[in-house]
Structures are given as C-alpha cells and as structure tokens.
Amino acid sequence: MSSNLYTTYSFLYSHILTSYMTPERKNKLLKVLSKRQPNLTVVMENVQDPHNISAVMRTCDAVGIQDLYILNTKIPRHKKWGTKSSSSAAKWLTIHQFDNTADCVAELRKHYQKIYTTHLAENAVSLYSIDFTGSVALVFGNEHEGVSAELCSLADGNFIIPQMGIIESLNISVACAVSIYEAFRQKNAAKHYESPALSAEAMNQLMLQWSRGAEDAEL
C-alpha cells in the first residue's frame, strides 16, 4: 500500500472514530496535538523504578513531548509503568524501547540534532546554557549509577542542574521535570506552542491511535 493511500485510509478511519466522540473530547485531543513538540525528547537509560518512569511520562505529556525513549541494557524491559493513574500518561505517548545503546543513539540521530546526558563531569555545562529552541534529546540515567560511560561517549555533551546544597543529585523524575520545564520556558518564549509542529500526517496517525482508547482514558 502506498504511503498516500495509507494516509487516506487512516484519515477516513480516524474520522469515523472521532465522529463518536463528544465535541469537547475531540477538541481537547486536537488542542493537545497542536502543542506537541517533535524536536524535544527524553531518554531514560536503565531506570529501574517504574514509578520514576511513569512520573517522567506525566511530565513529558505536560510539556508537549510525544516521543519517549527507554533504553535498558542492564535490566529487562518494563511491562508496567507504575500506578494506574500515573501509567495513564503512557496512553498518550509514543514509547520507543531499546536494549542496545548504539541502536538507540542511531535512531535518536535521525530525529534530533543534539544529545545531552545528565552527567557530573568537568566538561558539563549548566542546564540553563542549553538552547532548547533547537532539536534536543536529554538523557537521564540509572537511579544509582547515572548515565553509562558508553552513552556519554556517544552524546554531544553533558549537563548539570545547578544546586546549592550538599547532596549534588536529584531524583530522576525531579531532575527530568526541572530540565524539560526549562525547555518549555524557552520554547514558550520562542512561541513554539503557538502553531502545530507535528506534520498533518503525524497528527492524523496520533488522532487515530488516541481515538481508539479515548473513551476509557482520563481526559
């Protein structure tokens, strides 16, 4: 099936599904889609606690991140994302799972210009010096070991969140929230949320996907 024909069929199917929604529900989904930011993503490497993952998912959804990358090279793939209320965020995200670092980075390079890891190193820059108006992937590591040396070596740089306390670390879900809300601040100031950033085809495909489960999901 050609891509154009597939898009046409997807549009028709999506139209049929959305015709069963209330106007309020449909408008909310369309509004959320119009705010999605395809040039910003989060990568979680070997994050063990599913509650941390689900908390990150909720924050990603809140700032308009659609694609989330989960890389597990030392632990099995996750089958659940935490509590029911937290895991509901997964319904609205596109989750990419990898078990090979090189494959994950190769896929990231197809979509993002810069990859930054959260790693306390001499060459680390402040979170607030990163230009989030470009295309950026932020990598957060394991709760105890942080981001692996392999992934750090494949990234474009390391960043840290400035802190004034004795303990120089934050819980991963907190660190992620602080980081992507700085991205939100910059992107909002640059008016990235004022017009849709997703292609019409991507919006249509997501609307089709979301329509299938919208009736049972939290909105």
Characterize the structure shown.
- The chain is 44% helix and 15% strand.
- The longest helix has 18 residues.
- The chain has 219 residues and is α/β, with parallel strands linked by helices.
- A seven-stranded parallel sheet has the order 3-2-1-6-4-7-5, with helices on both faces.
- Helix 1 crosses helix 8, helix 2 crosses helix 8 and helix 3 packs parallel to helix 7.
- It has two domains: 60 residues, no CATH class; 159 residues, Alpha/beta knot (3-Layer(aba) Sandwich), CATH 3.40.1280.10.
- It is globular.
In a few lines, what is going on in this structure?
The protein is of the alpha/beta class and 219 residues long. The protein is 44% helix and 15% strand. The chain is globular and about 55 Å long.
Strand content: 5-15%
Ends distance: 34 Å
The count of DSSP E runs of length 2 or more, i.e. the number of strands, is 7
User: Are there runs of 5+ residues with pLDDT below 50, and where?
Assistant: 5-13
Sequence of strands across the biggest β-sheet:
3-2-1-6-4-7-5
Q: Looking at the structure, what is the overall shape? A: globular
Class per helix and strand makeup: alpha/beta
Order of helices and strands: HHEHEHEHEEEHEHH
| Gyration radius, in Å | 18 Å
**What is the CATH fold-level name of the largest domain?**
Alpha/beta knot
Domain count: the total is 2
Number of helices: 8
Helix content: 40-55%
Mean pLDDT: 87
CATH top-level class of the largest domain = Alpha Beta
Going by CATH, what is the homologous superfamily of the largest domain?
A: SPOUT methyltransferase, trefoil knot domain
